[in-house]
UniProtKB/TrEMBL annotation:
Name by which UniProt lists this protein: Transcriptional regulator (Xre family)
Keyword terms of this UniProt record: DNA-binding, Membrane, Transmembrane, Transmembrane helix
UniProt-listed InterPro entries: Cro/C1-type_HTH, Lambda_DNA-bd_dom_sf
Pfam families assigned: HTH_3
Cleavable signal peptide: none
Domain named HTH cro/C1-type: residues: 7-61
């Protein structure tokens, strides 16, 4: 059984409306609705509150609703990929400034300029790779969070 089905079933077993559950969890009723339709997953704090409220272990909740584990893994990978994009971007900006401001900073040798241009090209390749990975991960995350029809 998927997490959204477990959440809906447990809420109904406890004779709670979505509004009542939302109030107990400090979220909006729209958020509860999104969880129960499978559009989104609860964050870790909400999962802990749900497990306490429904007297079900967090482990069972996560194992039975294993989609949430996959979603957390994908979001973690996406955040990591986005984090790795900053360094090459900043380095490229610095290198471009160095090459473009040679009059101000002093003329670089042809070898120095060539090495900097190669570094810019390599960093650009890294950025293209990470950008492609981020887009691919975002697409698979969007597909996996669509409700089952």
């Amino acid at each position: 059984m998927e997490l959204n089905q477990i959440l809906r079933k447990k809420r109904q077993e406890y004779h709670l409306t979505q509004e009542q559950l939302a109030e107990k969890l400090y979220v909006s009723s729209k958020t509860v609705s999104n969880w129960e339709t499978g559009k989104t997953f609860p964050d870790i704090n909400s999962l802990i509150r749900l497990s306490k409220l429904y007297h079900i272990s967090l482990d069972n909740l996560l194992v039975e609703g294993s989609d949430i584990v996959r979603d957390i893994d994908k979001k973690t990978r996406l955040m990591t990929l986005k984090r790795y994009m900053w360094l090459p971007s900043i380095l490229n900006l610095i290198l471009i400034l160095v090459v473009s401001q040679q009059r101000l900073l002093g003329k670089l040798s042809n070898i120095g300029t060539g090495l900097i241009l190669v570094s810019i090209a390599l960093n650009s390749g890294i950025l293209i790779y990470f950008n492609r990975e981020v887009k691919q991960e975002e697409q698979t995350t969007e597909v996996s969070t669509q409700p089952n029809e």
